[in-house]
Specification:
mainly alpha; 2 domains; single chain; Hypothetical Protein Yqey, Chain: A, domain1; globular; 150 residues
Length: 150
């Protein structure tokens, strides 16, 4: 079992002892999502980068829930999803700044050329869950529009 999953398990047990409903619920959902991902990959357990990917998906789902709940004037749902997002984010690596992503993009251009697909693959592998794919895609497209001279 990975160290990140062990940390999630330990936090789940402490949340059970403390009877923290939202934390128990959120960690249970994370564990279930990780278990589904492991089954899909035909593995017993996921390694840390795979767990980070699951956590990123869970965080994205919560953000979508927050956006929809806010749009539909459902503050109680938005508040619960915000708390869940806060708990999930505690397990994710710190997000890279736009400048750090731009440096990775330059490094990728030097390594793989000027096609968006290989650049995205290179940057996302280096960022390892610390960058939002949508933001990276926008920054890559912006950089490629500027041309190869930067």
């Amino acid at each position: 079992m990975s160290t990140l999953m062990e940390r999630i398990e330990a936090d789940y047990k402490s949340a059970m002892k403390a009877q923290e409903r939202v934390r128990i619920q959120t960690l249970r959902l994370i564990k279930a999502a990780a278990q589904r991902a492991a089954m899909d990959k035909r593995k017993d357990a996921l390694d840390d980068p795979e767990i980070v990917q699951v956590l990123s998906q869970q965080a994205k789902q919560r953000q979508e829930t927050i956006d929809a709940a806010t749009k539909n004037n459902r503050p109680e749902i938005a508040a619960e999803a915000t708390e869940e997002l806060r708990l999930i984010s505690a397990y994710l690596p710190e997000r890279l700044s736009a400048e750090a992503i731009k440096r990775l993009i330059e490094e990728a251009i030097n390594a793989v050329g000027t096609q968006q697909g290989p650049i995205m693959k290179h940057v996302m592998a280096k960022a390892a869950g610390a960058a939002d794919g949508k933001q990276v895609s926008q920054l890559v497209a912006e950089r490629l529009r500027q041309g190869t001279a930067a």
